[in-house]
Amino acid sequence: MRDTEESINVSALNQFAYCPRRCGLIYLESEFADNLHTARGNAEHARVDRVAHEAVGFGVRVEYALPVWSDRLGLVGKCDVVEFHEDGTIYPVEYKHGARKKRLNDDLQLAAQALCLEEMTGKSVPKGAIFHHTSRRRREVEITETLRRQAEETVAAVRALLISGVLPAPVNDARCKECSLKEICQPEAVAGKFRVHVMRSTLFDPEDECAKS
Ligand code: SF4
């Protein structure tokens, strides 16, 4: 049983796994700033990418920008590409900019797409791929039991975030360097304010012996 009937976008799982605050800024506060990375990503999604699929053999039907959903999980979204093979294999492919590199946040998004496709078709979706546009290489991803469980846990975490309405604290680490929301998020300033808040509460904590002396 879900806590809310509001559907969660499959791509929110990717954002949350990258940084919960980023997910909150986008889905709670409707902030989205383009930087080089998101601009490239958007351009690549826009021309997904019949060229890359010319290599797919005869007997494969390819659907682009296919809407998907799961009533069980309360998910909606779109698959960049889904291949329907003659032998019944259903194979989602998600396009990402950049070179071939394993990223759990991308794998979780693909797993959520697989869960949606399974519910919609009644067929198993054991594998899919991330197509890395810069290197023009696929990275095949097995939709393991562990990945499925992580995807479902992430759906629950995103739902809890949206219900709470509370923006998470900044991660303030290497992820921020490439984040398109850095200017809006101000991770260093927010982390600085948080440090000051902690110092103040320690200084005036009645249980704190240093504050008493
Ligand atoms: S700048 Fe850092 S903390 Fe802020 S949303 Fe981006 S990754 Fe998260």
What features would you describe in this structure?
The chain has 213 residues and is α/β, with parallel strands linked by helices. It has 2 domains: 8-167, Lambda Exonuclease, Chain A; 169-213, no CATH class. The protein contains 9 helices and 6 strands. Strands 1, 2, 3, 4, 5 and 6 form a 6-stranded mixed β-sheet that branches. The termini are far apart. The site of iron/sulfur cluster has 14 residues, from helix 2, helix 6 and helix 7.
Counting helices, strands and paired strands, the structural category is: alpha/beta
- The name of the CATH topology of the largest domain is Lambda Exonuclease, Chain A
Overall, the morphology is globular
CATH class of the largest domain: Alpha Beta
Number of helices: 9
Total E-strand runs: 6
- Beta-strand fraction estimate: 15-25%
Rg over C-alpha atoms, rounded to the nearest angstrom: 20 Å
Low-confidence stretches: 208-213
Give helix % range: 40-55%
Span between N and C termini? 54 Å
Return the string of H and E elements. Answer: EHHHEEEHEEHHHHH
- Largest sheet at a glance? 6 strands, mixed
